[in-house]
Amino acid sequence: MQLHNLKHNEQKVSFSEAVKLGIGKDQGLFFPPQIEPLSQVDDLLDLDFVSRSQKILRHLIGDEIADLEEIVEDAFSFPLKLQQAKNNIYALELFHGPTLAFKDFGARFLARVLKAVKDDGHLTILTATSGDTGAAVADAFYKQDGIDVVVLFPKGKISKLQQKMIDTLGSNIRAVEINGTFDMCQDLVKTAFLDEPFRQAVGLNSANSINIARLLAQVCYYFEAIAQLDKAKRDDVVFCVPCGNFGNICAGLIAKALGLKCNFIVATNANDTVPRYLHTGKWEPKDTIACMSNAMDISRPNNWPRVEALFKMQGWDLSSLKYGSVSDDITAKTMQELKDDYILEPHAAVAYRVLKDNLQEGQTGIFLGTAHSAKFKGDVDRILDIDLPLPKAIADKINLPSLSVTLNNDYDALKAYMTKELLK
Ligand SMILES: Cc1ncc(COP(=O)(O)O)c(C=O)c1O
Questions:
Q1: Given ligand 1 and candidates 94, 95, 102, 302, which is best to mutate, with the most ligand atoms within 8 Å of its CB?
Q2: Ligand 1 pocket residue status of 215, Cβ below 6 Å
Q3: Nearest residue CA, atom 15 of ligand 1?
Q4: Residues of the chain with CATH 3.40.50.1100
Q5: Is 367 left (phi over 0), alpha (psi -120 to 50) or beta?
Q6: What pLDDT shows up at residue 27?
Q7: N or C: which end of the chain has fewer CB within 10 A?
Q8: How far is CA 372 from CA 308, 363, 378, in A?
Q9: Residues 221-261: tens digit of each pLDDT
Q10: How far apart are alpha carbons 65 and 16 in whole angstroms?
Q11: 135 Cβ inside 6 Å of ligand 1
Q12: How much distance in Å is there from the Cα of 119 to the middle of ligand 1?
């Protein structure tokens, strides 16, 4: 697979190089210059999820990775379910993996691909998290030979449940709580990447959501959604995706470019840079607003250039892309409206609302369930006046001891800690 840098066309890399580099020159994103459609999509839809995903990813990536089939089988080892929510609207539940979020698909695939393509040396994944990513990355790389993981998170600013999913693993996973904010954690990561001798010494890699491997893994579940639908309902399917950084919807649009028959709707919370852009043609990010659907609190979505590039490449009209943004107030009302049929957490509620408001007669709507409701238990319990049971993946961790260390927001302190831990 050949990819180029969307900012510097002349930078061309293989899939393996793109996975190792993460991002290109000038922070440009790697993307394929064209996407060859799959032949016989209907036949593919008859296969099981793993067999079909092996074929899709082999088609996209080519023969660079000999063990791709084994990697896919090992990474996608948990179920995903299409559940009817109301009438012709379905939830694609992507939260039945080990950390109860859609990120398990991308993180588990990336972890295995990175192991296959990495050079002989040792790798250190350094990542900052405001909650879910850290858990998915930590779990995906747990006990992988030759790879250490250091997850930074802001002390006291992620939920206890989220923290337990990061800092109870031990082994090659190190959790560091920083006396500071998420932005400070992110700045520490950036500083480490600019420290070239240190970067080389510990073999730094970021495993963030910009990595093309994470995106390609996510393409597969759009096919599975349609495969789980009755054939009679497959003619006019509309996916509504709760968007933050726009990686998930970009993966869906790649599925469409591969020949999956479907359309898309963008759903955001009050951080509506893209809906406003689609309405006015002006790119005017505002300050980020804190919403209940906090994983979507992003006003400069870093995957948007890929979405635009794809529309251009396919000759699709951006003005045909439907969109909507939803306030916290409407999010809560939507959760209550559906309570008797389906329990929505805030991210899914945003997507359900926009889908319901845009779906036309005869269409089948699918919204993406990106996280388990229990991960947002506080809001869900309060708004719906219920007491959600904790799923086993969380309940099992709640009484395990936390293994994190605490550091000040000080790069030298982080470097000293990592040097002591990783270069002993
Ligand atoms: C629960 C949840 N929903 C939706 C999103 C948004 O996905 P994307 O950033 O791919 O648009 C995220 C991203 O972090 C998330 O964690």
A1: 102
A2: no
A3: 295
A4: 2-103+211-384, 122-202+396-422
A5: beta
A6: 82
A7: C
A8: 30, 26, 13
A9: 999 999 999 999 999 999 999 999 999 999 999 999 999 99
A10: 8
A11: no
A12: 31
* Pocket test residue of 130, 239, 245 for ligand 1, highest count of atoms within 8 A of CB: 245
Q: Taking the chain, what is the end-to-end CA distance rounded to the nearest angstrom?
A: 38
Which DSSP string do the residues of 180-234 spell out, in sequence order?
S-HHHHHHHHHHHHH-HHHHHHHTEE---TT-HHHHHHHHHHHHHHHHTS-GGG-
Taking only the tens place, the pLDDT of each residue in 312-324 is 999 999 999 999 9
Can you give the pLDDT at residue 311? 98
Residue 23 CA, distance from chain mean position:
16
Q: Using a 6 Å cutoff on CB, does residue 373 contact ligand 1?
A: no
CATH fold group of domain 2-103+211-384: Rossmann fold (3.40.50)
Cβ(242)–Cβ(350) below 8 Å:
yes
DSSP secondary structure of 317-382: -GGG-EEEE--HHHHHHHHHHHTTT----HHHHHHHHHHHHH--TT-EEEEEE-B-GGGGHHHHHH
CA-nearest residue for atom 12, ligand 1, is 295
Q: Which mutation among 370, 376, 379, 380 tests ligand 1's pocket best, with the greatest number of atoms within 8 A of CB?
A: 370
Res. 395: pLDDT tops 90: no
Kindly state if the Cβ of 164 falls inside 6 Å of ligand 1: no
User: Tokens at residue 286, please?
Assistant: 């505002």
Q: How far is the CA of 345 from the centre of ligand 1 (A)?
A: 13
Assigned CATH class of 122-202+396-422: alpha beta
* Alpha-carbon gap, residue 387 to 98, rounded angstroms: 22
How remote is the CA of residue 70 from the centroid of ligand 1, in Å? 27
